[in-house]
Amino acid sequence: MAKNITGSCVALVTPFNLDYSIDFSALKTLVAFQIKEGTDCIIPCGTTGESTSLTLDEHRQILEVVVETTAKKIKVFAGAGSNNTLHAVSLVKQAEKAGVDGILSVAPYYNKPTQEGYKRHFMEIAAATSLPIILYNVPGRTGGNVNVDTMLELCQSIPNIISIKEASGNIQQIMSLLKNAPETVSILSGDDPLTYPMMTLGAKGVVSIAANQIPKIVKLLISLCLEKKYEEAKKIHNRYLDFFILTFIESNPIPAKYVLWKMGMINEVYRLPLLPLSNSSKKIMNTELNRLNIC
């Protein structure tokens, strides 16, 4: 079993052509950009990758292209989550065949299962693969919260679970998880604005949206925190905090894809029901981009 995940992980967007097909050329460019800028792990086909709008075959093709492009230079953990446990298992098996290093599995969304339902869901997934798993808790998107006790029980009973991406935004829950998680399991921030405070409390990295656009900055922030150079890291956190917050000015990944379009890396294309960033949000984002000289 692989060691737990630490460092800067990017929740990669999925670029589309103007006809809404996958833009594989742009995808390769994004992956090469992440490798060049020092990102530790690429996570394609997650929720930031508009996974719920992708077909099973598109999942497979994206993973194969990302794995081939990385050429083992950095880790690839595939988004392979679903609110249908059987479908999640099929995504995991497909990811395994594609040659990924592990998977990120989001808690089932919409169904709002009981805590026992969450347990059974992740047990089924873990039993279907030998790959390491990052458990992903994001109540704001799924409509339900995986409690700390449930996450800890899953960590203790399932060796596959090596990391937890915690994006509840609940500081009390985050502190409890960081305090009680076993050393064999790394806790990763799932919210860019909370990465710095979480790391001062013991988190080991981030699964970042902002790393799509500013991977070198996110990597530096994480590296300084891991070296316990918190004062230096705080300066970066404060400088980029407003940008981190603006990555959520509208539903993710809308703002991230807008900035990447401004950077000339992708088309500003989304699949419905997502739409391009509104003009009012663009004005706010453009002001921040100019302040930071991002593009």
Automatic annotation (TrEMBL):
Q: Which UniProt keywords apply?
A: Amino-acid biosynthesis, Cytoplasm, Diaminopimelate biosynthesis, Lyase, Lysine biosynthesis, Schiff base
Q: Which GO terms describe its molecular function?
A: (R,S)-4-hydroxy-2-oxoglutarate aldolase activity; 4-hydroxy-tetrahydrodipicolinate synthase activity
Q: In which pathway does it act?
A: Amino-acid biosynthesis; L-lysine biosynthesis via DAP pathway; (S)-tetrahydrodipicolinate from L-aspartate: step 3/4
The leader peptide range reads none
Q: What class of enzyme is it?
A: lyase
Q: Does the keyword RNA-binding apply?
A: no
Provide the residue positions that the database annotates as binding pyruvate. Answer: T48, V207
Which residues are the active-site ones? Y136 (proton donor/acceptor), K165 (schiff-base intermediate with substrate)
Name the family the entry cites: Belongs to the DapA family.
Recorded protein name is 4-hydroxy-2-oxoglutarate aldolase, mitochondrial
What does the record give as the organism's lineage? Eukaryota, Metazoa, Spiralia, Lophotrochozoa, Mollusca
